[in-house]
Fold this sequence. Notes:
The chain is of the alpha/beta class. It is 47% helix and 14% strand. It has helices at 24-38, 63-73, 85-88, 92-105, 121-154, 187-198, 203-213, 225-232, 261-272, 274-279, 328-343, 348-356, 359-383, 389-409, 417-422, 427-433, 436-446, and strands at residues 7-14, 41-49, 79-82, 108-111, 114-116, 166-170, 177-182, 242-243, 246-247, 294-295, 304-307, 315-318, 325-327, 447-451, 465-469. The longest helix has 34 residues, at 121-154.
Amino acid sequence: MAGQPQRVVLYGRVSADRVRGRSVDSQLDAGRRWAAGEGLRVIGEYRDDGISASRYAGGKARPGWQDAVNLIEAREVDVLWLWELSRATRDRTVYAALLAACEEAGVKIVLDDRWYDPRDPDDAYDLDTKAATAVLESGKTSKRVQRDVRARAAEGKPHGWVTYGYRAVYDPTTGKPLTREPDPSTAPIVQELARRILGGESVYSIAKDLNERGVPAPRRGPWRGGNIQRLVCNPAYIGKRVYRGQVQEGVVATWPPLLDEATHFQLRALFDDPARRKYRQDTRVKHLGAGIYRCGRPGCSGRMRVLTPKGRAPMYGCRECHRLTRVQAPVDAMVNRAMWRRLARPDVLEWLAAIGNDAEAKAAADEAARLRTQLADLRRRVRAGELTLDDLAYFRAEWEPQLRAAEERARPRTVPAAAFEVAGPEAEARWASLPISARRVLVSALLDVTILPAGRGRRWDPTLIQLTWKSPTG
Length: 474
């Protein structure tokens, strides 16, 4: 047609609805055929795959659309071709900006092979009607989606991204998502993270280890300390449904938990601890007692820090009164020795259960002590010739699984898990293998260390280091 514009730009878009909608490739193919039939020159093809044009989509950028609008505003195009107006926008504000740009630049809009001139009142009215219809449908869709999300939340059903540690379960007939189930490859990673954090390891050292092992991280990125902290505190791991940032109390989730509630709340308490935020003990403090040991001067009880005087050995010094110091190495050696010796004692489980003030754990610890006594008595009777080795094997097969189960139940939730990993006859070697961050967690949880003042010129005196074990009886 004589006098018609010669330059045309094509734009195609789809969001998530690829079943009922037309793909971007097929949209652009139709645009090319139309342009060839009209004898127009295509100067640009732009697309946005999987991006919504609704105002309810959270403002996600559409680079293809912005490039097309830039051409219009630069007056480098005469025609904008669209499969339908909703491909361009379902937002009133965006539509108004498009219409104003096309009207200013004299750009025509083609929908379903029909020409529209924004400067013509009748064409503009038709465009306004189509835009209003697109906005209305977008609003209705948003309402339906939100209603469905609310209903799924009330029923404890999942929605959105599959949480790390789980995999989606689909209806075999319809293919629709039903719920979640633990993923055999990633669920153990979540449980490992919780166990290691409560055992005293820093999230940064754990992240480094996971990256070195090549363990896949959520969203394909590397493991980072902050990512781990947010991940393990997710209420989804204790079977809680979250809707708009709030845990839905009283709602039973349809997926099984990966962590128990006690572990979850221990993790939350750990990361919410103001002292942790202030001192960042896992990453910056490199000494066993810094921020843990206390000053024993009358009226002080301040925390100790490490001083490094020039030409002298490192020393602990009170950060409050600044009037008490003690050479660091012998204090740490004394505390290290006291810790592994206490954790090596036969009554360690009973002691830890008492510290945790956990009645069930204490009962389990008592059961474990009874079973250990019975096994020791069996060995004594075998040595005395009162029983045979076959008798010993028979009772061991029955009692040792019970002993292991009782020892597991004897772990109170308020005591760091690393205490139980160290506890036992090999406590000295296990303690030596712990990172400094884990040792600090255990010292803080199990032992009060107070450095008492000494007279001027007095040499090292272990009686001036007061060690008080934490337990109901002291």
